[in-house]
Amino acid sequence: MSPPHATLRCIACGRAYPLAEIRYACDACGDLLEVVHDLGRLRAARSAADWKALFAARLGALDGPHRSGVWRYHELILPDLPPGDLVSFPEGNTGLYRHPGLERASGSADVRVKHEGENPTLSFKDRGMTAGVSFARHLGVDTVACASTGDTSAALAAYAARVPGLKALVVLPRDKVTPEQLAQPLAAGALTLALPTDFDGCLRILRELCGRLPLYLLNSVNPLRIEGQKAIVFEILQQLDWRPPDWIVVPVGNAGNIAALSKGLIELRDLGIIDRLPRLLGVQAEAAAPLARAHREGYRTRVRVTAGETAATAIRIGDPVSYDRAVRVVRATGGLFLAAGEREILDAKALVDAGGVYVCPNSATAAAGFLAARAAGIIEAAAQVVVVATAHGCKFSRATSEYHSGPHAGGPPARANRIVEVDADAGAIERLIRAR
Ligand code: F0G
User: Is the CB of 254 within 6 Å of ligand 1?
Assistant: First the structure.
């Protein structure tokens, strides 16, 4: 058998483990593991121009694994995974939209929204989950499990439902996910537990259970998830003809995603496919902003907070699992973390939505952080900026309808589009339209 093309390695002490071993932490130091690719072999296999030509040739495939916006880059994701084991809808191939409204509001030359809400379960989690569940199938596990603020559980349940005999367990903070998010794992047949705690509490309990029961954990502590997740930047770069934008802005909760995006960018640079790294701006909701606080305090200590209430419920996380890794890689790109307040988040959501790109409050947190970074001069007017929208507005209907139609103490918010009650009468409607 040929040697494996990818292995697991501890992000702190560097100890190596085989990829096919089920483990989420280093035996020696307890830190997180990551998948390490044999970049020398990848460089020897193809020049940068040939990799780009290969990915271009696969774009728009009508059938087979390369239809996916994750598995189009199979060699850079999980090279040892046989195509026959892939569990794919397919996912990815999401739009990258110019956004004139954001450009006008920020006085910026070029702002685009990468709409990950266009994935099969309406969030970016499908990218990590196609990798995670494919690997679970490869390993032949019995049950996949995750703790979640909603979107990971929706993705896990849907992908598991595609594998005959594979069971799914999801653990959610009770009353802290939206009805639409809760409906998704129920619909896909997952065992769905609601716990009277927050996300951090759910993950702690599930990790303990994974030591007692044969559960395959598919939170972002599982390094396989990160590999699928990083395809967001591969796709953004391919959509920009491999010319890196100046900034990529993402909402941050558990910080797995921003760690994944940086990993992907660094690999593309090391393969010569891009010539420089975009800077990363990670944005948290003020109610749950340990990384933004760490940035303000010069990263002197690891900050943990108890998350407060926010409309951005999917990033309501006070103790991010990928904290250290995220700090390291974001700073390596010359990037930073900021926090956005509730009013800014909801106004930014209305602004992005009004461009016809319907996003969730978590995505809007990134947009609000971008607007704040522009206003503070951190991002320049001439910069090309990509804001990653992580989930679809349809998962968060209540936040949207309440913003537009109230009830509002102290008057409607800046961008409210009030519903108009009118008689079921053509004459009344005609008068109303003529009077506007
Ligand atoms: N945006 C959305 C819509 C999310 O669901 C999440 C995380 C994030 C952003 C933040 O990503 O955690 O990698 O920093 N949702 C997880 C979940 C926690 O359980 O669905 P992160």
Answer: yes
